[in-house]
Specification:
This protein is mainly α and about 230 residues long. About 80% of the residues lie in helices and about 0% in strands. The chain has 12 helices and no strands. The longest helix is centred in the middle third of the chain and has 27 residues. It is globular and about 55 Å long. The two termini are about 25 Å apart.
């Protein structure tokens, strides 16, 4: 698993695509951070955290779209399948590599609260809860996008599928006020975005943590199952 993770990490950090994604991510987050700061005139990270689920929806499928689809298209997955390596190691190796990449990008955005601390007082507890929620939400997004990459041999198709799944989740969460009370309770309990918004208040609940970890595990399992089907086909 660690060998695969290190290989994917080097590919992500040493290729033009990795640099393009990093620069685009920092430019996008910087725009929304500065826009909210100058419009609201308040030393807070609320605007940044509110827009992050939408931004990650575009960037994470781009980071994962080639992870498994290219392996299947080029035939290297069949080569891996003949080696003494488990399918779950392949899945976890890819997942850890993207998590490391996202963690580095999020760490670079710590420049924003560091800047705000110079002009106002930040709630450190709320800031920690916000970044933890963002990191956990990214893990769910990565697991979903990896599953999309396992469904096809084409990277662009994998991006479209992954983005579509994340966009559907986002729209369902935003539009839940139009549903019946029972449906709203169901979406609130199962939507990662809803639990992300709850954690932005500065309260870290076990139910929130459990939802993020469970959703990540479910989609990683689905990815493993999809690759196992191909391995034994």
């Amino acid at each position: 698993m660690m060998v695969i993770s290190w290989k994917e990490w080097r590919v992500a950090m040493d290729t033009p695509l990795g640099y393009v994604v990093a620069v685009a991510f920092l430019l996008a987050t910087g725009f929304f951070f500065g826009n909210h700061l100058f419009l609201a005139g308040q030393a807070e990270m609320r605007g940044y955290f509110n827009v992050m689920p939408l931004l990650l929806m575009f960037f994470i499928p781009a980071m994962t779209m080639r992870m498994l689809s290219d392996e299947q298209r080029s035939g290297t997955f069949e080569l891996l399948a003949t080696m003494p390596i488990r399918t779950i190691d392949i899945v976890l190796g890819k997942f850890v590599a993207v998590m490391l990449q996202v963690s580095v990008l999020l760490a670079l955005t710590l420049f924003y609260p560091a800047t705000l601390s110079l002009i106002g007082n930040l709630d450190s507890g709320q800031l920690f809860a916000g970044y933890l929620a963002l990191w956990l939400l990214a893990a769910v997004y990565i697991a979903i996008s990896l599953y999309a990459s396992a469904l096809t041999n084409h990277a662009v198709v994998a991006y479209v599928i992954g983005f579509g799944m994340l966009f559907g989740l986002f729209i369902m969460t935003q539009a839940m006020v139009t549903f019946s009370p029972a449906s709203q309770d169901f979406i609130t309990a199962l939507s990662p975005i809803t639990h992300y918004q709850l954690m932005l208040r500065g309260v870290i609940g076990l139910d929130d943590m459990g939802l993020f970890l469970s959703a990540t595990a479910i989609f990683l399992t689905l990815t493993w199952f999809q690759l196992e089907r191909r391995r034994w086909r």
